[in-house]
Amino acid sequence: MPKQTRLLAISFCLCYEVPRCVVPAAKTIFIPDEKEREKAIEELYEALQFLENELKDKFFGGDKIGFVDIAALFIPLFQEVAEKQLFTSDKFPKLHKWSQDFYNHPVVKETMPSKEQQFAYFKARAASLAAPSK
């Protein structure tokens, strides 16, 4: 299989896996119940470990930002919103470096909402997820 075709196939698979694995686990870390939250954090660690293992270069698609990087951009914000150190350089060194490279890339700085704006959005979403249902 040609390298470009293989990379495209891997990208599609990872774009499917990011929301399927990470989003449900990340949502549940805002659950007030301590036992359920700890279980959710373990599930989140498993999903992050999967991504850590798949990150082979500076970005998921190589030396340039690609579709998977954009799909995964929210991951570093979850630890700030959750006010927990989930995404440490010790536990996930490649993902930590990836997040630094991604958010410091000139194109990202120019086109993305600021990290503060994204944080405010996710913090509001987390509050709505944690609020009791009416």
UniProtKB/TrEMBL annotation:
Top-level taxon of the source organism: Eukaryota
UniProt-recorded name of the protein: Uncharacterized protein
